[in-house]
Write a structure and sequence with these properties.
This protein is of the alpha/beta class. It has 16 helices and 20 strands. Strands 1-2-6-3-7-18 form a six-stranded mixed β-sheet. Strands 8, 9, 16, 17 and 19 form a five-stranded mixed β-sheet that branches. β4 and β5 form a beta hairpin. The protein folds into two domains: 279 residues, Aminopeptidase (3-Layer(aba) Sandwich), CATH 3.40.630; 153 residues, 2-Layer Sandwich (Alpha-Beta Plaits).
């Protein structure tokens, strides 16, 4: 039978409607969990969490050197008062890692849910901070808690601790164990989580993980709308030393082909790479969820991947963080070589931080870079590499986090996202755990500058709401049915 030919207009309609994406609907909360939601006096519980966070910030765990055992002592004091068993395992002297467990009630129906945070915080230039709100102050001022770690990541660590406390206080029956992990060294080399995974996996056995990431950003894409990008995937790493070689010479006389010039040319070629963007599937899912909130023409566009690529992708390319999720990236982060002003050395090097998307192996990018530069006088040394990792968002923990992030709130959207960096979740995903980056704080974009910057802070309102959100999500996936 001969097919009928569609008119151009009908063909366009068929194309548009046929390409729509329907977002995955997050399952409803178990009815048995709801009885625990408001068994807590949330006002008092929130105030208690604020006080715990203040004390935690005042515990100096700046890395370097870390001294995370100080942090485990502080957290351990809270756990001891609640009679929650824990142990501290040092990956190096003074580099403590805390493991606390609330065991399943009766037969364990599922492997443990792990609540992960890192104890260490980055350094801070105290003179640049507002007086009285210093990096170790834990000051409560104007409705905010100030100090290094308020956002990254003692804030979430305090919420995870207090979630454990309330599970214990209420005697919530658990169908799976809940494990609190507070680890050392995330800001430098992830030594803590690697130590636990490699040498103490039997104490963890994480099937699901909540870790840092996924802040709610106010006015991210539209005025009045807050978007939680829950991290489900992270780029892998390829750290390189790129070395240019040439003849030594006197600094007074420029001569083509010497090492410094070769290195400059190699860096220029490196930044001139022009690969095609790769859109991770999580972007289409997030766009479809945003479409439900936006409605109208905007919603129509966001549900259709080809329109997202055509109309939304150019906007994403203008934002460095968003752009980094669309490409395998390489960035020069330092230089090495002799530093004598009047001597041209035989070797100079640049340190490269390359990040690879899911679907790319670090070794493949390494080979591609060598081929792209195509200079026998430029060599590469692999300093470190790790494979990218991801978790499905078709999962009850993801659904619970997203559900409670938006519950009862207009114009708040939660969906999956690819992170341009990596966290300790990488090492747990390698063991088969499904890990989700979710910090239940909602912040305006200007407050994001507190990450590794000055005047880092989190609002009291965020601590109150965040504790309630995290506790309810944990109850959904861990409480006995």
């Amino acid at each position: 039978m001969r097919a009928r030919r569609l008119s151009p207009l009908l063909s366009l309609v068929a194309l548009l409607t046929g390409c729509a994406v329907t977002p995955l609907r997050d399952a409803a909360a178990p009815r048995s969990a709801a009885r625990w939601y408001d068994a807590v006096d949330w006002r008092k519980a929130g105030d208690e969490a604020v006080a715990v966070l203040q004390g935690y910030i005042r515990t100096d765990t700046t890395n370097p050197p870390g001294n995370e055992t100080r942090g485990t002592t502080y957290l351990g004091d809270v756990l001891e008062k609640e009679q929650i068993p824990y142990e501290v395992l040092e990956s190096a002297p003074g580099r403590g890692n805390l493991v606390a467990t609330l065991a399943a009630t009766g037969r364990e129906e599922e492997p443990p849910l792990c609540l992960l945070s890192h104890i260490d915080v980055v350094t801070a230039e105290e003179p640049t901070w507002t007086k009285g709100r210093g990096p170790l102050s834990g000051a409560l001022d104007g409705g905010f808690v100030y100090g290094r770690g308020a956002l990254d990541m003692k804030g979430l660590g305090a919420l995870e601790l207090m979630t454990m406390v309330w599970l214990k206080r209420l005697g919530v029956p658990l169908r799976r164990s809940v494990v609190l992990l507070a680890v050392a060294g995330e800001e430098t080399d992830s030594q803590g989580i690697q130590f636990l995974v490699d040498q103490h996996w039997g104490k963890l056995r994480c099937a699901h993980v909540v870790n840092e990431g996924g802040l709610g950003i106010e006015d991210l894409l539209a005025k009045g709308q807050t978007v939680y990008t829950i991290s489900v995937a992270e780029k892998g790493t390829l750290w390189l030393r790129m070395t240019a070689h040439g003849e030594a010479g006197h600094g007074s006389t420029p001569v083509a082909g010497r090492a410094p010039e070769r290195l400059v040319r190699a860096i220029e070629r490196l930044y001139a790479r022009d690969p095609d963007p790769f859109v991770h599937p999580s972007l289409y899912e997030l766009a479809a969820r945003l479409a439900d909130d936006a409605g109208g023409v905007t919603g129509f566009v966001l549900r259709r991947p080809w329109l997202v690529r055509r109309l939304v992708l150019p906007k994403l390319l203008e934002s460095p963080p968003a752009r980094a999720t669309l490409f395998d990236t390489c960035n020069v982060t330092g230089f090495e070589g002799k530093k004598e002003p009047n001597v041209v050395p035989t070797e100079v090097s640049a340190i490269l931080d390359c990040r690879v998307l899911p679907g790319t192996r670090p070794i493949d990018l390494y080979v591609a870079l060598r081929k792209h530069l195509d200079d026998p006088n430029v060599s590469f040394e692999i300093l470190d590499r790790s494979e990218p990792a991801e978790s499905t968002w078709d999962d009850p923990l993801f659904a619970a986090l997203a559900r409670h992030a938006v519950a009862g709130r207009p114009h708040v959207v939660a969906g999956p996202a690819l992170s341009p960096g990596y966290t300790d979740s990488l090492y747990l995903r390698r063991r088969g755990a499904r890990a989700y980056g979710f910090t239940p704080f909602e912040v305006p974009q200007e407050e994001m500058s507190g990450f590794h910057g000055k005047n880092e802070r989190v609002s009291v309102a965020n601590v109150h709401r965040g504790l309630r959100t995290l506790f309810r999500a944990v109850v959904d996936v861990a409480a006995a049915r």
